[in-house]
Amino acid sequence: MGVVPVSSFAADGLDFRDFLFVVVDQLSYRALKDLRKRKKLLALMGGGAGTSLAVELRNLEERARQEHEENMHALRFGSHTVSLRYGDVVQLQHVRTGLYIGVRGKFSAEHQATSRRAELQDGTMASWLTVNPFFSHRTQGELVTFNEMAPG
């Protein structure tokens, strides 16, 4: 899929809501990562789940479920921070789909080989984005101002 220039949203039948994202606080994915690693290891071992492995897997599944509930609670009733500072780790959630912007570390962007590929995906650690200043006179911890230029 290539980048197609748009002369007018109305004339081209595009809905601007497809381009809206919400900045949300960093969510946790540690338990989900541990569960996926363990399941992958068990699959490589032939899936032979002994009693201790089955108990460990259930514990990891429970931790991942609790983590998911905490993330959903944070999204519903989170801090909704008004201020954003350079150095903050955030996630960009697509309003229409609920997915997050994520970075594919081993793939370059289609139109700029020196950049990483970004795409919509389920929330993972790959969707954590650090807010960095575009200009060198801005420093970590400083407030981001409205309409300020960001690296891209």
Automatic annotation (TrEMBL):
Domain Inositol 1,4,5-trisphosphate/ryanodine receptor: 14-145
Listed Pfam families: Ins145_P3_rec
Domain of life: Eukaryota
GO biological process: calcium ion transport
Protein name: Inositol 1,4,5-trisphosphate/ryanodine receptor domain-containing protein
Protein's organism: Effrenium voratum
